[in-house]
Amino acid sequence: MMAPDEPSSIQTHPSLLNRLKSGDDAESWNEFYRIYGELVRDFAVQAGLTDSEANEVVQETAIAMARHLPEYRYDPKVCRFKTWLLNQATWRIKDQLKKRKKDASVNISSTAAHAGNGMAEETARTATINRVPDPAAVDLDGLFEVEWRKNLFAAAWERVKEQFSLKQLQIFDLLVFKEWPAADVAKLLGVSLANIYVTRHRVSGAIAKEVKRLEKELERQAGGRGGATACGEEDRFPTNTQV
């Protein structure tokens, strides 16, 4: 496991979604990008998109959410905010892959026209297909879950640090993030192996507890009044990247 390079984007921001629903709060949208932009971008990159394509996914996801947030009503039994955000981002990723495939088809036709033979066309088509991931073959739900948990863990780690001493934090960093053998950590820091294992257990427990608390808090922030919003395809708003 690698140590977080910087604090997670997932932090406590009470009533952010409620403020975003007004649609004209620039500061709140900037806050949205800070909180969820990195999460969506990392998700898109892991799904096979380029940096520029991933940035477009972040922008298009924000646009889609701006259109849909005024009608969004939170009900975890119908659709958790996490699932709703996953769907919004997933649809934008699929749009980018379709757009890439369409652009590649145009390039194939151009290449074949200049080459003037079937072999050149087949070679170009094969190369292009290899560059375009098949959305059906990519576990987007799984990728999003990994990025979501990674952000939550990083946020929880930042929050629990104040509960432990510097030496305890060093022990956890070396043992868990840098993956040093326990005996080496004990020797370097001059503590017993028992101390090493107890520290890991306590810090891990604190992080796990904070992750659960953060998840509940993020869901509570999405709370609203009125009927619940479903997570299905019928809730989708098309974007400029759709083809």
Layout of strands and helices, then pairs:
Blueprint: H1 16-20, H2 26-46, H3 51-68, H4 81-115, H5 118-131, H6 140-160, H7 166-177, H8 182-189, H9 193-221
Helix pairs in contact: 2-3, 2-6, 3-4, 4-5, 6-9, 7-8, 7-9, 8-9
Largest sheet: none
Can you tell me the number of structural domains? 1
**Helix content class:** 55-70%
Helices and strands, in order, run as HHHHHHHHH
* Record field, number of beta strands: 0
**Low-confidence sequence ranges:** 124-130, 224-228, 233-243
Mean pLDDT: 76
Radius of gyration: 23 Å
Descriptive tags:
243 residues, mainly alpha, 9 helices, 0% strand, globular, disordered C terminus
Would you mind describing this structure in some detail?
The protein is an all-alpha fold and 243 residues long. The chain has one domain (16-235). 67% of the residues lie in helices and 0% in strands. It is built from nine helices and no strands. The protein has helices at residues 16-20, 26-46, 51-68, 81-115, 118-131, 140-160, 166-177, 182-189, 193-221. It is globular and about 60 Å long.
